C-alpha cells in the first residue's frame, strides 16, 4: 500500500488541470479517453473542447450528421475512432436513454470500447475497482518491479493487469488509476526520465539495477509499407473541382479526397498525363498540368507511409457535377489534404 499511497499523494500535488478531471460525467470521460488513444494530451485537448462545445451531451452527438463529426475530428487521425464514437453515442442515446453502463463488463459491449477504455470509464466515473493498463502503466510497473516481459506479447496484458489489481486500493480506483497514468505521462517518461527527483528513487528496481532505459521491453515491430498517392485537383473554367468520398474500409473511410491515382512507385512527371488519360475521371480535355509539390509529402501512419503529390489539372469547359472551392472547404478531409486546400 505504500506504493499506492505515495503515488496518489504525488498525483494530488502534481496533476494537470484538465477539463475531464474533477468530475464524474461518463460522457466527458468517454470522449477524452477515445480522443487520447494514440494521441498526446496537448493535441487532444483542443478537440475535446470543440466537441463538448458542439455536442454538450451524448444526445447532441448522437443527433449530429457523421460529416459534422468527421469535420471536427479532422487532423486527430485514426478516423475509425470518430465513426465508432458517433455510432456508440446513438446507441447510448436511443437504446439506453442517454445512460452509460456502470460496469466495465457492460461498457465493453459498446462499439469502440476496449478493455482499457471500459476500465477507465468505470473507475473514473463510477469508481469501480478495476485497474487500467495503458502504455504509461506498462512503463511504470515494468520499471518499478524490473519486469522484462515483452509488453507486446500475448501474456503481458494479463500479467500487468494482475499486478495493477493488487496495488489498487479499494475505494480509490478513480484516484489510483489516474495517478499511475499521470505519473507515466509526466515523471516516468519513455526517454531520459529524471530519476533524481522521482518519488520512487529509493525503491525502483530498474533504477537500482541500472535498467531504466531498457524497460519496458517491446520486441514486436510494426511492419510499415510505403504507398504512392497522386491527387488530381481538376479545375475547370470556373475553378470548380471534383471530390469523392472514400467509402471502402481502410484509412480515411467516409472522408473526402480528390480523385486518386495510386502508383507502385513515384511517378515521373512526363508519365502523369498518359496515366490520367487511362482513367475515367473527367471527360473534359486537359489543357495544363502543374505539380503543386515537387517533393512528396510523406504522411506517416502507424503502419503506412504515404508519399503524396498534388497535381493541378486544368481542363476545358465545365466539369460535370463540379463543386466550388468554398463548398469543398466545408467538407471533412484527411489532414494532409485539408492542409493543401487551406494553402490555396
From TrEMBL:
Pfam families: HHH, HhH-GPD, NUDIX_4. One of its GO terms (molecular function) is purine-specific mismatch base pair DNA N-glycosylase activity. It comes from Flavobacterium aureirubrum. It comes from the Bacteria. Adenine glycosylase active on G-A mispairs. MutY also corrects error-prone DNA synthesis past GO lesions which are due to the oxidatively damaged form of guanine: 7,8-dihydro-8-oxoguanine (8-oxo-dGTP). NCBIfam families: mutY. Keywords: 4Fe-4S, DNA damage, DNA repair, Glycosidase, Hydrolase, Iron, Iron-sulfur, Metal-binding. InterPro entries: A/G_AdeGlyc_MutY, DNA_glycosylase, HhH-GPD_domain, HhH_base_excis_C, HhH_motif, MIG/MutY, MutY_C, NUDIX_hydrolase-like_dom_sf. Binds 1 [4Fe-4S] cluster. Its cofactor is [4Fe-4S] cluster. This is Adenine DNA glycosylase.
Amino acid at each position: 500500500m505504500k506504493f499506492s499511497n505515495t503515488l496518489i499523494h504525488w498525483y494530488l500535488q502534481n496533476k494537470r488541470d484538465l477539463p475531464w478531471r474533477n468530475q464524474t460525467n461518463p460522457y466527458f470521460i468517454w470522449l477524452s479517453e477515445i480522443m487520447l488513444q494514440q494521441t498526446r494530451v496537448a493535441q487532444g485537448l483542443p478537440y475535446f473542447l470543440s466537441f463538448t462545445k458542439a455536442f454538450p451531451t451524448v444526445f447532441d452527438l448522437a443527433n449530429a450528421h457523421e460529416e459534422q463529426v468527421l469535420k471536427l475530428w479532422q487532423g486527430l487521425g485514426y478516423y475509425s475512432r470518430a465513426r465508432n464514437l458517433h455510432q456508440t453515442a446513438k446507441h447510448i442515446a436511443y437504446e439506453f436513454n442517454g445512460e452509460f453502463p456502470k460496469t466495465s463488463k457492460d461498457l465493453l459491449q459498446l462499439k469502440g470500447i476496449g478493455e482499457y477504455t471500459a476500465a477507465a470509464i468505470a473507475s473514473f466515473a463510477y469508481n469501480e475497482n478495476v485497474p487500467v493498463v495503458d502504455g504509461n502503466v506498462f512503463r511504470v510497473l515494468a520499471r518499478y518491479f524490473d519486469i522484462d516481459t515483452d509488453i507486446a506479447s500475448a501474456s503481458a496484458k494479463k500479467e500487468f493487469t494482475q499486478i495493477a489489481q493488487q496495488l489498487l486500493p479499494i475505494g480509490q480506483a478513480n484516484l489510483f488509476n489516474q495517478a499511475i497514468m499521470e505519473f507515466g505521462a509526466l515523471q516516468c517518461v519513455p526517454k531520459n526520465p529524471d530519476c533524481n527527483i522521482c518519488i520512487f528513487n529509493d525503491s525502483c528496481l530498474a533504477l537500482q539495477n541500472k535498467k531504466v532505459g531498457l524497460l519496458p521491453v517491446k520486441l514486436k515491430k510494426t511492419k510499415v509499407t510505403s504507398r504512392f498517392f497522386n491527387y488530381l485537383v481538376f479545375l475547370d473554367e470556373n475553378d470548380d473541382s471534383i471530390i469523392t468520398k472514400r467509402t471502402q474500409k481502410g484509412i480515411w473511410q467516409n472522408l473526402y479526397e480528390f480523385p486518386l491515382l495510386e502508383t507502385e512507385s513515384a511517378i515521373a512527371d512526363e508519365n502523369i498525363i498518359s496515366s490520367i488519360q487511362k482513367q475515367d475521371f473527367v471527360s473534359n480535355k486537359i489543357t495544363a498540368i502543374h505539380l503543386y509539390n515537387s517533393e512528396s509529402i510523406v504522411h506517416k501512419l502507424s503502419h503506412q507511409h504515404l508519399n503524396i503529390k498534388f497535381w493541378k489539372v486544368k481542363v476545358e469547359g465545365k466539369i460535370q457535377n463540379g463543386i466550388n472551392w468554398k463548398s469543398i472547404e466545408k467538407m471533412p478531409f484527411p489532414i494532409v489534404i485539408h492542409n493543401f486546400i487551406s494553402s490555396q
